[in-house]
Design brief:
This protein has 162 residues and is an alpha/beta fold. The protein contains five helices and four strands, in the order βαβααβαβα. 43% of the residues are buried.
């Protein structure tokens, strides 16, 4: 089973949204048995908290559930547990590089939007201090990045929807 960890700052807006969208897309393509997804934050501000209500509302409007998710902080062990760790912005990427084991073994590290040709190298903006439109824009970018990611993984892993 291919495992993916999505990482943002506090694990209540961007990364849980990415996790939920990824799981939703995987279910839609009947690929549940092929992937495992989780999310975490680079800081432990919200450990144990549910995703931000605004993220939940935007996801629900798209038919995506974030039920059961709880914030947690990323740790060194995640680099051995996951195949791919996806940062939602370049700041997270830099922090993850600092946490990564020196041996170079473990998860591959990348930016989520590197899986979408139109957004390579770009950050998913943090909507936390913004309004509804910010959360909607963040969701849109995440959904497009996740779509590109899943298409890449299906091809890379030689999968087909049953």
């Amino acid at each position: 089973m291919y495992s993916i960890l999505f990482v943002c700052t506090g694990n209540i807006c961007r990364s849980p949204t990415a996790e939920a969208v990824f799981r939703h897309y995987v279910r839609e393509q009947n690929l549940d048995g092929h992937f495992m997804a989780d999310s975490a934050g680079t800081y432990g501000y919200h450990v144990g908290a549910a995703p931000d209500e605004r993220s939940i509302q935007v996801a629900q409007a798209q038919g995506v559930t974030m039920e059961g998710q709880q914030a947690r902080k990323v740790n060194k062990a995640d680099f051995n547990k996951f195949d791919l760790i996806l940062a939602l912005d370049q700041g997270h990427y830099a922090e993850l590089e600092d946490i990564a084991p020196a041996s170079g073994k473990g998860a591959e590290l990348s930016l989520l939007l590197d899986y979408h040709d139109a957004y390579k190298g770009q950050d998913v903006p943090d909507p936390y201090y913004g309004g509804a439109k910010d959360f909607e824009q963040t969701y849109k970018l995440i959904a497009e990045g996740v779509d590109g990611l899943l298409s890449f993984l299906i091809k890379e892993l030689g999968l087909k929807s049953p």
